[in-house]
Amino acid sequence: MSTTVSTKDLAAGHRKRLRERFMEGGPEGVRDYELLELILFAAIPRRDVKPLAKVLLAEFGSFADVISAPRDRLEAVTVRIDGKPPLTCTPGVLAQFAIVRAAALQLSAANVMGRQVLTSYEALIDYCRANVAYEQVEQFRILFLDNKNALIADEKQQTGTINHTPVYPREVVKRALTLNAGAMILVHNHPSGDPTPSRADIAMTEKIVEAAKAVDITVHDHLIIGRGRHTSFREQGLIG
After folding, report:
1. CA angle 87-90-92, nearest 5°?
2. How far is Cα 15 from Cα 97, in angstroms, rounded to an integer?
3. Residue pLDDT, tens place only, 172-191
4. What is the C-alpha radius of gyration for the chain, rounded to an integer number of angstroms?
5. What are the tens digits of pLDDT across the range 91-100?
6. In the 8-state DSSP scheme, what is residue 141?
């Protein structure tokens, strides 16, 4: 007597077991490619998505890099399997990745918005990393604080190129006055992953500090966010 088991049945069994293992052990109970599989399940039904998950990790380097990768690069990934339609990052897959990223940002924001950020700097760094660490071009953001140093707004001021962002101190101060902010923290990313400040970064920061000081607004810090690392101008003695 022989029993035929379809590939659909095998895929369903694998999905069930993986979900159960995740629910029992949490993120620590699964590997990065398995976590990607769990996300891909919702977008690609009745297929073994493990090959796509592994190729995505090999292509982009980490789970966070996959989730944050540019749409055009994700769409270019194709996994060909003999006798079956290729596995690709369909619009459904792109939507799932966008949902995961948005959820991560919302969770990070909940830990800092409206709170005194100077007393929870680690949460602030995590929030900044979630926002800009995996961006492909430089992005300059400003965290506006009230007179009690509670975060009242986080705004993207400028988006630049892979290694440069134009910033205008006058516009920065103008926006702070509009929000009635008492202080600011400057934030931008280095897509290269190296958070070492450039001479241009230092010069630009000095100009903003001076412009803000003229209207009695404090610049507490300038954070440069890299991949897994950051630089604080205050810690480096670059802001007095």
Report:
1. 125
2. 18
3. 999 999 999 999 999 999 98
4. 22
5. 999 999 999 9
6. E
Under 8 Å CB-to-CB from 200, ≥6 apart: which residues?
164
- Segment 20-50, tens digit of pLDDT: 999 999 888 899 999 999 999 999 998 999 9
Query: Which residues are 125's β-sheet partners?
Result: none
Alpha-carbon distance of 13 to 3, in angstroms, equals 16
Entry pTM: 0.78
First CA to last CA distance, the chain = 81
| Residue listed under structure tokens 């459904």 | 92
Q: How many CA atoms lie within 13 A of 111 on its CB side?
A: 16
Give me the domains of the chain, ranges plus CATH numbers: 7-103 (no CATH), 116-232 (3.40.140.10)
Question: Which residue has 């270019």 as its token pair?
Answer: 76
